[in-house]
Amino acid sequence: MQFAHRLEPLQSNVFADMDRAKGLARAAGQQIIDLSMGSSDLPVSSHIINAIAQSLSDPTTHGYLLFNGTQAFRQAVANWYEQRFGIPVDPETEVLPLIGSQEGTAHLPLAILNPGDYALLLDPGYPSHAGGVYLASGLIYPMPLRAENKFLPDLTEIPGQVLNKARMMVLSYPHNPTTAIAPLEFFQTAVEFCLQHNIVLVHDFPYVDLVFTGVAPSIFQADRDKQTSIEFFTLSKSYNMGGFRIGYAIGNAKLITALKQVKATVDFNQYLGILNGAIAALTGPQTGVSQSTAIFRQRRDAFLNALHHHGWNLPSPPATMYVWFPLPSKWCDRSIEFCTNLVIKTGIAASPGAGFGKHGEGYVRFALVQPPSVLEQAAHQISEFLKTQ
């Protein structure tokens, strides 16, 4: 058989690679402490579950769901956003339901890029951002994120020949994997830059609520008229609804229409009961969100304190559910090998920084998806592993 060349860059995936390594470790008898994926282990609030459960017995929710049938959800999204950021949103033209924000970021390049056009992506960055560009036969210009720049890209480094063919820029703050937050001033600079060069500005915003220090702004606080931007949200992190696959896009009406055209070719929408649960999440009590954020803050502190006890002093992540761990010099260009050896010898599964891009090499990402006692145990085992290397 012959397959499309666009599949070639998709052969490796950081999560699939670690899944294979975990399988080898289990086969060798290791008990796995899985810190490799940012899938929340916390429960969904009961009022959300109840809204979904009540829908199940209603046969009118069992059929295909087209765009007009999502109006109540889109209105809830628009109301939530305006209450949160003080910027009005038109639910008819500026909101699009998605099967998780990853669907949106992966499909949007199909609506924007022609073969040979450039997308400007963060490096390191979330893997699906690159995957969508490859599927659209686009080219990637990686914008390096360096600790000395607070993990913000330097837009002045982008070559002119790339800018001439650049059609989209993808940002995502609070950032996975580095945990950095971008200040509003940076977003204002990015919006001006994209308007100057006729570039669509994409902001992936899954960690809007998982912020421990400072403030995580929305891109529309810098692009209040939605001239060039689209922003992606998910209920996976704030409401622990990862398995329900529900997210949405807010943005420039033309961008929403273009993404809607791609989506209409690929799928309809989720089951209406899931949207009813999402409405309950956005309009109901938000105590579950604040409780989840407090739990991840507690876990962050427990993990960092345990690492500090064992001699590893790391800066405290200001947001997200991750710790971005710089490797000792011996492993600085071998993060995949480090993670493979770590899980096989200790059962601790992490994500190698190289899986997030060239400039992620030399780091490892740990997801705080275990209770504090387990994270403290993991810190001890990581320290013991490093002593033997």
Please give the order of strands in the largest beta sheet. 2-8-7-6-5-3-4
The oligomerization state is single chain
CATH superfamily of the largest domain: Type I PLP-dependent aspartate aminotransferase-like (Major domain)
Q: Strand count, sense and closure of the main sheet? A: 7 strands, mixed
The CATH architecture of the largest domain: 3-Layer(aba) Sandwich
Structurally, how many domains make up the residues?
2
Amount of helix: 40-55%
Helix-strand topology string: HEHHEHEHEHEHEEEHHHEHEEEH
Under CATH at level 1, the class of the largest domain stands as: Alpha Beta
Q: Work out the helix count.
A: 12
Mean pLDDT: 94
Percent of residues in β-strands: 5-15%
> Termini distance?
44 Å
How many strands appear in the DSSP assignment? 12
Broad shape: globular
- Within the CATH hierarchy, at the fold level, what is the topology of the largest domain? Aspartate Aminotransferase, domain 2
Radius of gyration: 21 Å
Unreliable spans are none
Architecture overview:
The protein is an alpha/beta fold and 389 residues long. It has twelve helices and twelve strands. The strands form three sheets. A seven-stranded mixed β-sheet has the order 2-8-7-6-5-3-4, sandwiched between helices. Strands 9-12-11 form a three-stranded antiparallel β-sheet. Helix 5 (127-135) links the parallel strand 3 (118-123) and strand 4. The relative contact order is 0.18.
